[in-house]
Amino acid sequence: MTITNKDKLIIFDTTLRDGEQSPGVTLTVNEKIEIAKQLSRLGVDVLEAGFPVASQGDFDAVQRIANEVGPLMVGREAIGKPITIAGLARAVPADIQRCYDAIANAPHKRIHTFLATSDIHLEHKLKITRDECVKRAVAAVSFAKTLVTDVEFSPEDAGRSDQDFLCTVLSAVIEAGATTLNIPDTVGYNMPEEYGAMIKYLIANTKGSDKVIWSAHCHNDLGLATANTLSGICNGIRQVEVTINGIGERAGNTAMEEVVMAVHTHPDFFPVYHTINTSLFFRISQLVSSLSGMVVQPNKAIVGANAFLHESGIHQDGVLKNKQTYEIISPETVGANTINLVLGKHSGRAAFRSRLQELGFGELTEEEFQVAFNSFKTLADSKKRVTEQDLLALLSDQVSSSAGEKTTYTVKSLQVVSGTSFATATVQLQNTQTGDVLIDAAIGKSGPIEAVFLAIQRLVGKKIHLLKFDITAVGQGVDALGQVSVKIAEGSANGSSSDSEDSVTETEEDKDAGLNKATYHGHGADSDIIQAATKAYLNAINRLVANESKRILGERKVDV
Ligand code: KIV
Ligand code: ZN
């Protein structure tokens, strides 16, 4: 990393807030902490850990991240300070106070407050005048400023707001103490030149604009989030709000790896430098993908499985002669090379520990290490070559089901008999809350996985709709680890055909009945795909059950 006289580009990651707003993504606290640790190690400057007022679960997650990840210095020696933990808050005192309470213990903390400024939002959503909008924005920033020094303000839907009105609001919040002004293209509407020109206009016409950091926050509805963000950088943006793999609301947010690698690849073009350890991109992409259940498309820039594959003969020939003929980024730069490094069944604890350290899982307790080592040994018995990709899949699994969090049911045993026209499954589950061991069997007309899912539905006493079932092979060969990702929703308790016990997938009636139902994702990895599917299904059911108990305890959820 060469530091020049250019400005540093501040990387603000919102994978755990806007990213977690992706449809169907629900991360447990343990999963969020693991992702937060990896983001800190990657060199992210500001981590938006969540929206604390949204629910008790969100508050707890932000608080644990602030306490446990906020002080970490691992991998940040070159940056010289720990990550800043930010929480999101609407422009109301109760939200801002709750946000502060959650982040209070982080050594570096930021309150990020937002209020819509476009006429369409003011008239139809907030039903307030422009004057009232300015008052509320100033009041929110002033209050936040009594709690922390680092305050960010976002005029929501800035991309469709009147620019002179934006200048009025932004000048007022700078005077009230805002230190970062974030300009969201909330609905992904802007064109790159338009977004860049807007940033230039706002900086030129906002009073005190030289005292604050200007930030870009783009959504990808037209596939332009990265282009818009880069155009912003060329026009004065010095902080980018991004997510790993571009996950986020609807079509997603700007992908961190794309913006950072564009700046990295064109050091002379952009007026900024970055301090991200790009060699960790591939690993963190895989971690976020398996924990969130959002599969990375193979042709995704930088971190897709095909990003460094050369299929055509002409390209292969060129790359063999000189890599630069067809590669603008080397796989090593983003860590795509190490993903196939191998461990075998003779690898001992020391080799395994050192590989875990390289993967960023160096802080496992002795007990967690032993569980991981046992899973590795079991896998190594059935698979000759265990790769980093396999280890990441196993560790993601372990993070998801660790510490008893959201784990009501575990599999005690599973027996499947498969034939040409149907399959039967006998499943034994343990209810960890009551200690009960439950056993039942079912027939699957379309195969063993359906049989297992039906048996589990009977055991947990719920009608479950399977909304998504994805299976991917981690690596190559017949012994490849199968990684299964599912999305489920609970079915209606009475009435429709969906209550018949012989279906696990969603019917049209289910779709109508299931509108607005909460969905849960789960994932599992195993060299046996039936076991991987069972783990994924149960992982999702455990999240559903945990959410049910929260609802019984009266937890509320507020949307952004
Ligand atoms: O897209 C958006 O406007 C947001 C704000 C809350 C910053 O996510
Ligand atoms: Zn957003």
UniProtKB/TrEMBL annotation:
Coiled coil: none annotated. Pathway: Amino-acid biosynthesis; L-leucine biosynthesis; L-leucine from 3-methyl-2-oxobutanoate: step 1/4. SMART domains: LeuA_dimer. GO terms for molecular function: 2-isopropylmalate synthase activity; metal ion binding. CDD domains: DRE_TIM_IPMS (cd07940). InterPro entries: 2-IPM_HCS-like, 2-isopropylmalate_synth_dimer, AIPM/Hcit_synth_CS, Aldolase_TIM, LeuA/HCS_post-cat, LeuA_allosteric_dom_sf, LeuA_bact_synth, PYR_CT. The keyword Metal-binding applies. Residues 9-282 form the Pyruvate carboxyltransferase domain. Residues 499-511 have a biased composition (Acidic residues). Keywords: Amino-acid biosynthesis, Branched-chain amino acid biosynthesis, Leucine biosynthesis, Metal-binding, Transferase. GO terms for biological process: L-leucine biosynthetic process. Its EC number is 2.3.3.13. Residues 491-518 are annotated as: Disordered. HAMAP family: LeuA_type1 (MF_01025). Belongs to the alpha-IPM synthase/homocitrate synthase family. LeuA type 1 subfamily. This is 2-isopropylmalate synthase. It comes from Linnemannia gamsii.
